[in-house]
Amino acid sequence: MGNQMSYRGNGVSLGNPNVIIPALTVLFFVFLVGISLYKMLYDVKISSDVVIAKEVGDLVKIFKEIDKECKILDFEHQKIRINFLTVKGFVSSEIGSMSLAYPKKWKGPYIYDNPTIQGKEYQIVRTKKGYFITPGDGVKLSNGKVVGKDIILDENADIAKMITDQKFLNFDGKPLAAPLGIGSGKFSRIMMENIIRADDDFAKNEHAQIEDKLFQVALAK
Rounded to an integer, what distance in angstroms lies between the CA atom of residue 29 and that of residue 32? Predict the structure, then answer.
């Protein structure tokens, strides 16, 4: 009995319900808070992917409209940030490293705020298989991958395959990037520029002929 420990002196007992129940309550509360925080962070990641899927689709529609009216010839860089759709007008044939055949047909602004995700602008990426709209470098997806770091988007990137794989640019069957079926390529760009130049020359000749006819009519009077 001399070696037996007793907790009666301080009024604490390991088997005392008055101690166990509050302790379990605190632990359960901490557990619930942890689960809630985890779910909140996970929901934020999922929400980002849902927003990406929608905004990528919206951007594709805008660029198709631009291509229909202005004819997109090419993009100067392998990656360009989409931060120029708010522009109302410009004087050259290029805007945001994008070359247009008919810049005067620009109908901007196409949007009033450049879309971003996690503070990063979307981008147009040129690959050997064409152009794609993707989230900007540095965006972290719900699968834990970071665009530009874990998902490399260089000339050799097979983005068409990535958008079908949830380990890359796909969330729950929704692609997080999209092909942009525009851009003429170098050879086609040269051909298009020649056609435009020929059209301009033709228009000038037509104008000159009309002026000459008007002058002759005036002389005849």
Answer: 5
